[in-house]
Amino acid sequence: MVVDDANHSGEPVAAIRPELINRRAFLGGAAIGLGVLALAGCAPAGMSVAEAERVYGPRPNERFPIPAVKVSKINPKYFRRTVRYDSKEVAGTIIVDPRNHYVYRIEGDGYATRYGVSVGRAGFLWSGDAYIGRKAEWPIWTPPKEMIERQPEAAKYAGGMKPGLDNPLGARALYLYQNGVYTLYTLYSTSVPETIGTGVSSGCIGLITQDMLDLYDKTPVNTKVIVLKA
Hints:
Blueprint: E1 3-6, E2 12-16, H1 21-26, H2 30-40, H3 49-55, E3 81-84, E4 94-97, E5 102-108, E6 111-119, E7 128-137, H4 145-150, E8 172-178, E9 181-190, E10 205-208, H5 209-218, E11 224-227
Parallel strand pairs: 4-11, 9-10
Antiparallel strand pairs: 1-2, 3-6, 4-5, 5-6, 6-10, 7-8, 7-11, 8-9
Pathway: Cell wall biogenesis; peptidoglycan biosynthesis
Keywords: Cell shape, Cell wall biogenesis/degradation, Glycosyltransferase, Hydrolase, Membrane, Peptidoglycan synthesis, Transferase, Transmembrane, Transmembrane helix
InterPro entries: LD-transpeptidase, LD_TPept_cat_dom, TAT_signal, Transpep_catalytic_dom
């Protein structure tokens, strides 16, 4: 395991050692270092294959058992890791960086947990402050009317697609709101790891399922979210 020191962009500068319309269409002192490592449970680039396979291993006890990620399909720079990240935001705040395909969770003391993400075209158009207005485990997916107009085959899901591994939202979803209104912007789990670091969705932010489970468990409703300009 490695804890990386980085500038405010989240890039490392030092280290301390101790699937259907489904997903593709719909759609980041040594004592301090060790403390942050334990807090984030990170899996940084440069780790062994065994470590990656552990962090991104199967989750058999879920409602729909989640398979292991084929880590060879992910660029290691998008693995979950703890980085130096200068921010005045309180611990727990989520910062979305669509340009660089990362999501940060502020941990405090100048550190953040960084997750690699996929982001779609609309994700490069929307920016600003929001908050988590709703959370859902194994959510129902309902395609927006704009998507149905572009892709008529999605109309069969107009009433909602049942939860499951083939559901575009996957195992977890965090819905972004402004002033009590859903922005149509969502953080969700994808089981197509090779899309991480690319722009493939209809605008929402996709995390590797195991990363989304980690972020979801740490994120209560009303958590502040900042979406940076692309």
